[in-house]
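Problem statement: downstream parser choked on a complex file, so we are re-checking the raw output for the NAP run. The parser issue turned out to be on our end (a line-ending mismatch), but while we're here, posting the original submission so the record is complete.
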Amino acid sequence: MSKVVGEQVVLITGATSGIGYEAAIAIAAERHDGLGRRVVIVGRSPEKTARCLAEIRAASGSDRVDSLLCDFESLASVRALAASFRERYDRLDVLINNAGTVYDRRKLTPEGYEATFAVNHLGYFLLTHLLLDLVRRSAPARIVNVSSIGHASGTMNFDDLHFERGYQVMRAYHRSKLGNVLFTRELARRLQGTGVTVTCLHPGVVATGIWDHAPKWALPLLWLPRRLFFISAKDGGARLVHAGTDPALDGVTGVYLTDFQVKPPGGLGQDDAIGARLWALSEQMTGLGPAT
Ligand SMILES: NC(=O)c1ccc[n+]([C@@H]2O[C@H](COP(=O)([O-])OP(=O)(O)OC[C@H]3O[C@@H](n4cnc5c(N)ncnc54)[C@H](OP(=O)(O)O)[C@@H]3O)[C@@H](O)[C@H]2O)c1
């Protein structure tokens, strides 16, 4: 395939379901100067990704939607994704780190890391670093990290980051989502003055596939609230579109968004000393920094 040159590019991970899928349709459907932006979706299953690519093209009316593959459980796969992206595109205007999951039972990645932390935090961290020069070159540009309101309940126990001493699904999820908030703040600080903004958001409580990974005993309890109170994937996706492309957020960086508004993060979400420690550890864990 020939290289795409000079087009604005939006990369969305986790775009084969839920809010990422809906955001991909909405952004591909936006028109700017008659051209629109090229949207690159990332999925993990070749078949599902091919199907979603066709659906997103049809629903958006844009054929400038491409796809790449990555399993964020594997850092090697994240590196392969970044390499494929760099082969194909010469800029990256908006990076939306959205692929996320929960694990009912503790699972370790090929690198030996607790999988929730690896997919939801290390995946964002490594992909962003591997593409950061392209983002900087494309400034004004944006990085959006999809977090969760659950970050406010998150702990960052550096002595047991991988839950060797007992695993609980929501504790693992909240830790990873706290990681998204702390990463956003530290990256925004480091990118001050570059024209690259970094934000994170809670997309709402959204009726998507992520809830299917809840413990089996919780599924019947979720059935009614899901139908009554959860917002749709389309409405959740609109929060990603806002963070990624709304001109009202031009220049706004280092913030946490919920319901289209800037709000202070909760819990440890403003503890930048923990953020700095997490950053250094994440560099080591992803092979970006010196090992201890
Ligand atoms: N739904 C909510 O209420 C809610 C609330 C707060 C935050 N969030 C956040 O929103 C983001 C999107 O979630 P969603 O609600 O849209 O859930 P979803 O429908 O389950 O979509 C998750 C997406 O991430 C992908 N993904 C999961 N694990 C992956 C892996 N190992 N490698 C590559 N891709 C992977 C999924 O791929 P497949 O299609 O192959 O499964 C899918 O495209 C997540 O970061 C989540 O934490 C959601």
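For whoever reads this later: The domain at 9-285 is CATH 3.40.50.720 (Rossmann fold).
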